[in-house]
Amino acid sequence: MNALTKTIKTVLAAGALAAASFGAAPAAAEELDTIKEKGVMRIAMSGAYPPFNFVNEQNEVVGFDPAIGEEIAKRMGVEVEIVTTAWDGIIGGLLANKYDAIVGSMSITDERKEVVDFVGPYYRMSRGIFVKEGSDVSDMAALAGRKIGVTLGETHEQWAREQAGWTIRTYKGLPELLLELDNGRIDAIVTDDIPVLLAVRNNGNKIAQLDTSGLAGVADQAGIAIRKGNPELAAAMQAALDAMQDDGTYVKIAEEWVGGDIR
Asked: The pTM is what?
């Protein structure tokens, strides 16, 4: 059983326990009507993954993911409420009915599709391995015996744990990873490439990317997770996403937050 499979099984158990503990009802046969009746769709993300989702100086959750979620909700005729939560428990919170969807840069994987349904994908991503500028680590072979930082619960954590000789350290999100790398407490980080490359461009982070061109399966796709058994909700969200991609709204959002089209 690999790390992500263990996480999924733990999430299922935690979700069931949380539902019982908080008195949450099981997912209804169709939740679209309930959301429209309330007039609000609750979406979850970590709030620790700039520029995709993060908390600004005004204590507002902003970024590409909130903007996409807000636009989808608007096109469905409802308001949006953003919930921030730890990434490693975010699927459990969805299963426990704490929110209606996860719009938080979640990679679509077969294991996750066993417990949730996905709308999208709504952007593409690639795995990157980054070291501090001037590091003596020049390629992946040199990572043996080194301390590698990952975000707890991400697919990159599972992948990193499968690499021989790596010592894995887990963190809450990208800002913590970048800080630990800068302070020299870890030797490299494994995460999606776009946010790190933007940090280098916009903030001047002294970071170098290792060549991973020889790796298979480094490309990934982000989707919006919802509870299973809600085809009408999935269709309504997908229609809103398709429409905003067709009319140029998606590209405007992407240009604002990440500098270009990332479909």
From this structure: 0.80
